[in-house]
Amino acid sequence: MSDIKAAQKEMNDAYADYAELKKRLKSFGSRREEVKESIPQLTAKIEEAEKHKQKAMADYAAGVVDQNAVTEARAMVESACREEEQANGMLEAIQGEHRKAVDALYPARDRCRDARRRYCQACAEPIEDQLAGDTKIRRQLLDIFAAAALENDVELGFGQGQVDWELLLTNTFPEPTNDEIDKAIERFERNHMQDSKEVAA
Q1: pLDDT tens-digit profile of 155-183?
Q2: What pTM was estimated for this model as a whole?
Q3: Rounded (10°) CA dihedral 110, 114, 115, 120
Q4: 90: domain CATH number?
Q5: How open is the CA angle 131-185-194, to the nearest 5 degrees?
Q6: CA angle 104, 108, 110 (to 5 degrees)
Q7: What is the mean pLDDT of residues 147-158?
Q8: How many domains does the structure of the chain reveal?
Q9: Which whole-number Å values give the CA distances from 165 to 16, 21, 135, 181, 189, in the listed order?
């Protein structure tokens, strides 16, 4: 596998992991809200069961019902309490998993950034090697550099070392237009970040 393909795979895997993590966070959030909304209902259910138990005990004392009615009423209270306890336990577990996912989100984002940086470097290296090995282009650039150095020396009194080589290269290879940048970003997102964008949506 070439360096570029290996770097691209690493970057794609990093983005896929990040997207999956965000998907899990979204799922945890939905489940947490569902459980939180159910707890007041379960609390109300306990209160109703308690009222029913108190009435059953009063009716038993008055001889209206037998012991079975009291036993059943107590069982209803115990069952409602267990449901609320289970819901609270589930909520605590979900919140714990949510915190773990949040803690993992930032390192995952850093891995995306680092992998993207390595991918850029892997893509740049062949271009750098090609330009560095092209003696014709280098000689032409040096001719421009020499002419600029002489011009500075004559008109401004600067020494030859005052010419900006990086600026010369930037002028030789113009910066991309806004349209080129927009299209390049769209292409990159389409090829490498689709999962992340779908989760964010």
Answers
A1: 444 454 566 777 777 777 778 889 999 99
A2: 0.64
A3: 140
A4: 1.10.287
A5: 125
A6: 125
A7: 58
A8: 1
A9: 40, 45, 17, 25, 33
